[in-house]
Amino acid sequence: MSKWDEKRVSLGGAIIGSVVTLTIGFFIGIGWNQFSSNFLPYLGVRTKSTNDWSALDEVYTNLSAYYDGEIDKTMLVEGAKKGMTDALGDVYTKYMDAEEAKEYQDTLHGAAGSGIGVVMALRDGYTRIIRTLPDNPAEKAGIKAGDIIYKVDGEEVYNKDSDTISSKIRGEIGTEVEVTVVRDGEEKTFKMKRETINNVSAYVEYEGDIAILTVTRFDNDTGNIIRKIVQEDFAKKNVKKVILDLRNNGGGYVSAAKDLVSLWMDGDKVLVQKSKNEGEDVTYANHNQAVLKDLPTVVLVNGATASASEIVAGALKDYDKAHIVGETTFGKGVVQTLLNLSNNTLLKVTTAKWYTPSGISLNGEGIKPDQEVILTYDDANHSRDPQMDAAKKYLKELK
User: Fold this and answer.
1) Which member of 307, 309, 317, 321 is catalytic?
2) Distance CA 379, CA 394 (A)
3) In the predicted model, is pLDDT for residue 109 greater than 70?
4) pLDDT tens digits, 16-40
5) Is position 7 annotated as part of the catalytic site?
6) What's the CA gap between 63 and 11, in Å, rounded?
């Protein structure tokens, strides 16, 4: 077994051990009654519970009496909060301490600083580079698709999620960051200066009468950007067919996804959101904006197509508005609500699930392509794109 196989096998045990240790440790620091009255209300749990917590109180009583060591109650409480949310088994529900909460809020409000220009996602048990953005530090330094992100500034992060790794890579413009990757079992270290990343949310290219519309994420203004492109340029370019490239699009605002879908669908059901607390809510496409409804369309997707971009792909597939090419999408079909807690901490909790218009759950399943075409890391690193080739071939063969 290689070093990297050993690290991967041990990760699950480490996570389980951490959750158990943190949760038990909490009851060393404070009693259950204090916990239930001070913390549970933030989770929307009634404090007058009929559950029997005596078994937990028994652990607390014995550990507090026999534990041989110093106890930092603040760390135990913070650890217990993380342990409680982690124990739910939902990767999207997360407790953030004050520092993590600030970084997350900065990201939401566009104050995340600069970076190196990479798209990352979980693949084969590790966070890997999916692609490098053109004319950005990572590409210039020699980082390649498929690389496992092992360390950032000497700190091991191979067992962290992509959001955590991203926050460590980002920083002030001009500052240096050192990223160590693993490629073919070997470690490679790259030193780069952070830059403002050149990565617009949407752009278009033309090949004959085919418009290739690429949407990298769904920002507040993405819908307006795309609508302007379609209204001002498509007629001039005599566009008769469309390729919508949603590969590596991790999502964003649902409203922007709705605006995009509305170019093909007129007032139709786009998304169904279901919650045990809030019931069912339906999102419909805009009216009188479906200027592309009669144009043959291919949507390109892959394993990093997630969230809002899956809403688009799922709706267009359900209504037979597009032919889906590529790989099964990520499968993130849940809604998170942000709850502000005491001491500037934050709880991001899953509150609802998404379904396509026909009732297919997006979460954990993803959107399966009509035509599966794999793009390998080797393809990406040698500028080959069999998925795009398949999309063009499909459209050109249409009568």
Assistant:
1) 307
2) 20
3) no
4) 344 333 444 444 444 444 555 444 4
5) no
6) 27
